[in-house]
Write a sequence for this structure.
């Protein structure tokens, strides 16, 4: 997976699927940047798939832990409730909705 794949998915509002901490997840990607600790992260709204917390919704994913990253044909419309530009969890934002 490369940075441009994530940014392309965000800008074209396409859902993505990937393996992360125990299972496949499908998410709507909203922002891609760097955390306080210097790790690349993705802010996304999980719509289906595995979740250790058994909950869908807003999550932060570490890019280096993602496997089998695929951009899907499925698109999404307006941002979900709770979305904030300039994500406070990111010290640098590469791209965002």
């Amino acid at each position: 997976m490369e940075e441009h794949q994530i940014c392309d998915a965000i800008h074209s509002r396409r859902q993505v699927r990937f393996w992360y901490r125990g299972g496949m997840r499908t998410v709507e990607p909203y922002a891609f940047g760097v955390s306080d600790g210097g790790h690349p992260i993705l802010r996304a709204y999980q719509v289906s798939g595995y979740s250790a917390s058994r909950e869908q919704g807003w999550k932060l994913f570490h890019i280096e832990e993602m496997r089998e990253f695929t951009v899907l044909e499925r698109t999404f419309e307006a941002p979900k409730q709770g979305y904030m530009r300039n994500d406070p969890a990111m010290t640098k934002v590469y791209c965002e909705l």
